[in-house]
Structure formats: structure tokens, C-alpha cells
Amino acid sequence: MKWHPQKISRSAHAIRSVVIMSSCIAMLLACGCRVESPPQSTTTPSSASQDTDADSGSSKTELVTLEIYKPSTGSGENSTKSEVAEFTESFAATSGTTLEEIMRKMEQPKIVITGSGATAFVQSIDGVATNSSRGWTFTVDDEFANVGIGSLKLTPPQTIRWRFTTLEEATK
């Protein structure tokens, strides 16, 4: 049997496409999450440092602030660092609370999360859905997160910033 160069070229192209698509999906899964739960938010700083265990003083409730920056609609450079967050909300949390738990408390914007725990993944925020080239990524105190929302244990006070980006944009 004789191999035709055209068939080999098409096969290599198909394999390359599958590898690229798989890589994109893996990157998006590493950054994901989901939401739809009753709110238990606090927006007053007075509750930022309350002792929840008066005897030991070891378990403090402090604020975790979530900021969501929606994608820009204009053409040009994406300058999210100078933009104002479209959604900001603070939640009382103790050390060890996961980001997934906090995300599920948000009422607005609507957040769709699939999976739970280590497989929790943000499908969409306020109708903006993850696709093959862009997804929702987040930073914790301005550091790019290297685990998903179900695995990230918070140590309040912290600020979480969500942006709709490519992985390359998120890690700049």
C-alpha cells in the first residue's frame, strides 16, 4: 500500500487541531467555576474582623471581596487594570473557605458553575460564556491563580478579580 502525501498532510493537520483544542479545554478547566445560591453577603467593613470563637480567638471572620470585570466591547487594547469593576461584592469568610463557596453566594451577576470541588468550573458570568479561545480567569490579591475555584482555600482578607481573557492575557 502506498501512502499519499496529501492524506498524510490532512492527518497531521487533524491531529494538530485536536491537540490544540484539547490544550485550550485543559487551560479553561484549570481556571473555572459555577454559581447559583442564596446570598449571604456583607458590604460593611465593620464586620471585617469578628471573632467567631471567643474562647480560642483562632477562627476569625473577615472579608473576601469579589470584583468582576466584563470584557470590553471596543476595539483596541484590553486595559482592564484601569477599568472599574462592573460588579463588586464582599463576603464574610473564615480561613479555609473555598472560592467556590463564595462564588455560589453571589446573587448578581448570574454565574453558572458546573461541577464541584476540584472539578468546579465557571461556564459563564452575566451571560458571557467561556469559549474555545477565551474564558473567565481570576487573580487572588493580584496573583494569577494556579488552581480552580473548588480547590482554592481562601485566607481572608483577600480580593479576587475575575476577567474574561485568554490564558496568555491572564498571566501577563
Automatic annotation (TrEMBL):
Chain positions covered by the region annotation Disordered: 36-60
What the entry lists under InterPro entries is as follows: Transcobalamin-like_C (IPR027954)
Show the ranges annotated as biased composition (Low complexity): 37-59
Any Pfam family hit = DUF4430
Coiled-coil region? none
Designated name of the protein: Transcobalamin-like C-terminal domain-containing protein
Q: Which Gene3D superfamilies match?
A: 2.170.130.30
Annotated organism of origin: Allorhodopirellula heiligendammensis
Chain ranges of the Transcobalamin-like C-terminal domain:
96-165
